[in-house]
Amino acid sequence: xxxxxxxxxxxxxxxxxxxxxxxxxxxxxxxxxxxxxxxxxxxxxxxxxxxxxxxxxxxxxxxxxxxxxxxxxxxxxxxxxxxxxxxxxxxxxxxxxxxxxxxxxxxxxxxxxxxxxxxxxxxxxxxxxxxxxxxxxxxxxxxxxxxxxxxxxxxxxxxxxxxxxxxxxxxxxxxxxxxxxxxxxxxxxxxxxxxxxxxxxxxxxxxxxxxxxxxxxxxxxxxxxxxxxxxxxxxxxxxxxxxxxxxxxxxxx
Length: 253
Description:
The protein is of the alpha/beta class and 253 residues long. It folds into 2 domains: 3-108 and 233-246, Nucleotidyltransferase, domain 5 (2-Layer Sandwich), CATH 3.30.420.40; 122-229, Nucleotidyltransferase, domain 5 (2-Layer Sandwich), CATH 3.30.420.40. Helix content is 31%, strand content 26%. Strands 1, 2, 3, 4, 5 and 8 form a 6-stranded mixed beta sheet that branches. Helix 1 (41-54) packs across helix 2 and helix 3 (106-117) crosses helix 7 (234-246).
């Protein structure tokens, strides 16, 4: 399969585009719609259908979804309505889009794209991608193989969920300078690496475009830290790749 469609569903926006799977690139300019307040099952499903319909697409769709996803069902809900928990995401989105939809955890999708086409390409050992956005998503790979549905943005540090103080949304909410935020991020990364001892840390999410403002300010982090290369396209590309390879059992996944 040379192409598929990728959806990237989040608490603030729902994005999508067809993807050239051989090149790891968007095959057309992506479209984005704001996620309706509340991010209910019905509203997200409706917007996802609008994104796909914009392209007149009818084939295979991968959906990066902000939840632990097991057997097509959401087991958690991050920055979306709790009504998604235990919902058949695959069935719901397939019905509204009229396509065969394969959902995957959003950070896992971004990580897959970075490992195949971006900052983690050809890197062996333990590699972790952390998406710094509304929360913190995590994807962990060992010699290129994914450990799915890790939720390491929720590590408890100082009695609090790490992402509440360390996500990019926390930087904006608390009006932090890059220096102050880098100190918070450093504390989280030191805790993270003490548990997993990764060989490479890839920092993704929209803030990765500004990596030069905070990565040089990190303190006491022994692991090599790099910015994600695919930025906001990673979730779309990785979701499409996941769907294509899930539908081909002999393919690398």
